Target: Oxidoreductase
Amino acid sequence: MPDPTPQLFTPLKLAGLTLPNRVVVSPMCMYSARGGLANDFHLVHLGQYALAGAGLIFSEAAAVSPEGRISPEDLGLWADEHIVPLGRITDFVHAQGGRIGVQLAHAGRKASTYAPWRGKGAVAHEYGGWAVVGPDTRPYASSFATPNAMTTEDIARTVRNFVSAAQRAEMAGFDAVEIHAAHGYLLHEFLSPLSNSRDDQYGGSFENRVRFVLEVTRAVRTAWPTHKPLFVRLSATDWAPGGWDEEQTVALARLLATEGVDVLDLSSGGLTPEQQITPGPAYQLPFAAAVKRAVPDLTVMTVGMIDTPERAETALQDGHADLIALARPFLGDPHWVQHAAHRMGVPFDPVPQYARGTRLD
Model:
C-alpha cells in the first residue's frame, strides 16, 4: 500500500543531516543585533520554531564582514566574539531535537541602510553608516550610498571572509550554512548584467559573472564539514529586461551541483527598483520546477507565498521542489507546522509541552 503520510511530513536526508519534515524557516532579517551579536531576542525568536517542530530553522543573514551588513543592527559572523551568543541559540534548538542553519551574506551596494521601520536609504556616517562596495560604482538607487568598485584583492579577501564565517558557524554548532547570492546583495550583484559592468575576469560573459559565486562556494564547501549540507540561495530572475534570468539560473545550478552544493534555495528579485513583479500564490515555484527538470539530482527549495499546507504538499507531490521555505507565515503563526499536521491528519507532537495545542480552522 502507498505511504499515506503527506510528503510535507516525510524525512529528507541532506548529506549527514536528516530533516524530520520538509518545512524550513526561511532566513528573515530582524534588525535587532548590536555589533553583530545575537541576544535574547534572537534566542526567543529562533527557539520558538524548534519548540513548534520546523524541519530546519535558518537564522537571518549573518554578515561575513562589518561592511557586509545590510543595517547596523544585522547579525554578524566576522569575529570570534559572535560564536558564543550564536552557540547559545544552537544549543537550545538542539536540546529540543531541532536543526538549525545560518545564512552567510554580504550586502554589497545595498549595505549601510536603515532598518525598515527606522528610515529609508543610506545611513549617514554620523549615525553609524559606512562606505559600501559593489562590482562597480553604480548605486542601487539614488537614496543609497555610491559603492566603491571592488578590486580583485577585495574579492579575494571577501572569499576568505566567507570561509572564516563558515568556520565560525561550525564552532557555533550550526547544522547547515547557506551562501546568500540573492536579493540584490553582493554575490547577486556580480551575477547580473544590470549591476555588473566590469571588464575584467569578473564581468561581461556569463562565465565571468558567475566566477565570484563559484569561488565563494568552492572555498566554503572545502571549509565546511562534508557531512553538513551547504545551501546556496539565488534570485532566479531580476524581473527586469537585460538582467539575470531563469535560463542563467539553470546554467548556474548545473555548475553549483558539481561544486558540492546540497540544496539550491530559489527566490527572485531584489536587484533593481525597476523590477516588475506580480506576486501571487507560489509565484516562484516555476523557477524551482525548471531547475528540478534540468538538474534532477539537486535538492531544490522553494519560497514565496506558499502559505497553506495544501499548496506546499502539491508542490512536493508534483516534483517541483523538495523543501518548502516559509517566512511571513511563520511570523504570523510560529506553530504553522504543528497546525498543518493537525489539518492534514498527521500525528505530530514536536515537544510534549505543546502536544495539547490544536488550532480550529
